[in-house]
Amino acid sequence: MPVFQELIHDVQGQAINVCSMFLLLSSFAIVAQRSLASCVSLYAMQSFFLGFTAMVVANASGVHHLYFAAALNFLIKAWLIPRILHRAVDRLNVKREVEPLVNIPSSLLICGGLMILALYFSQPIKQIGPLLTNDSLALGLAIVFIGCFIMISRRKLVTQIVGFLTVENGLFLLATAITYGMPLIVELGVFFDILVAALIFGVLLHRIQDTVESARPAESRFEEVGEVAP
Questions:
Q1: Distance between CA 48 and CA 51 in Å, rounded?
Q2: Are 170 and 143 in contact (CB under 8 A)?
Q3: Residues of 4-43 as b/e, b for ≥16 C-beta within 10 angstroms?
Q4: How many CB atoms lie within 10 A of CB 157?
Q5: Residues with Cβ < 8 Å from 134, sequence gap 6 or more?
Q6: How far from 25 is each of 68, 69, 76, CA to CA, in Å?
Q7: With the C-alpha atoms ordered 10, 119, 123, 125, is the resulting torsion angle positive or negative?
Q8: Per-residue pLDDT of the chain (230 residues; tens, 9 = 90+)
Q9: CA 150/CA 147 separation, integer angstroms
């Protein structure tokens, strides 16, 4: 029986590590993308793996409120927020990140360096004590670093928003890895703040589009609808 329990423990640890690795790979994929819609879809996929990671940690650690956090993660970050951002992208009619401040090959190299930096910084924390999620510490920290880099290296507001949300995913993974999740009331507050921030970003994007449309010459607006300007 102890051997069987140890086997289950190892399987759960490997599942957490695999999901954390997918989270990191999705962050690199966001950096490598120019399409705004693809960045949003990759964020949704990243949030899905984060929710699955929370479920595995809840099952392994017995911290049952993580199941509720995982459900909120699936609902808000993997479904609702991507829908808001996809609608904003469609309304803005801007499909690609044309001129990022740092080109994609250089961005990927920088993100590789950030991952090495995260591995270095996570070593003292990992030595504090054995945790099932010890190997996820460096990955979560690397996701935070990469999300910050996305925010400062991209020009379009949508990709900057995705960078901000990626940072939040990395922080959630760190909290899950270090303490097996935050208290339930804190998690509810965080999810509510993220949802409100996404709604504000969506309204802001709509206002930007309305301002751009109202600033365009009247002749071009009438040409688009097939009428003649007075």
A1: 5
A2: yes
A3: eeeeeeeebbebbbebbebbbebbbbbbebbebbebbbbb
A4: 16
A5: 126, 177
A6: 25, 23, 21
A7: negative
A8: 466 667 777 787 788 888 889 999 999 999 999 899 999 999 999 999 999 999 988 888 888 888 988 998 999 999 989 998 898 888 777 788 777 889 999 999 999 999 999 999 888 776 665 555 667 888 999 999 999 999 999 988 889 899 999 999 998 888 887 777 666 666 666 777 777 777 777 777 766 666 766 655 544 444 443 444 44
A9: 5
Predicted model pTM: 0.84
User: In angstroms, what CA-CA distances link 189 with 46, 147, 195, 203?
Assistant: 21, 21, 10, 21
Between CA 14 and CA 121, with CA 166 as vertex, the angle to 5 degrees is 65
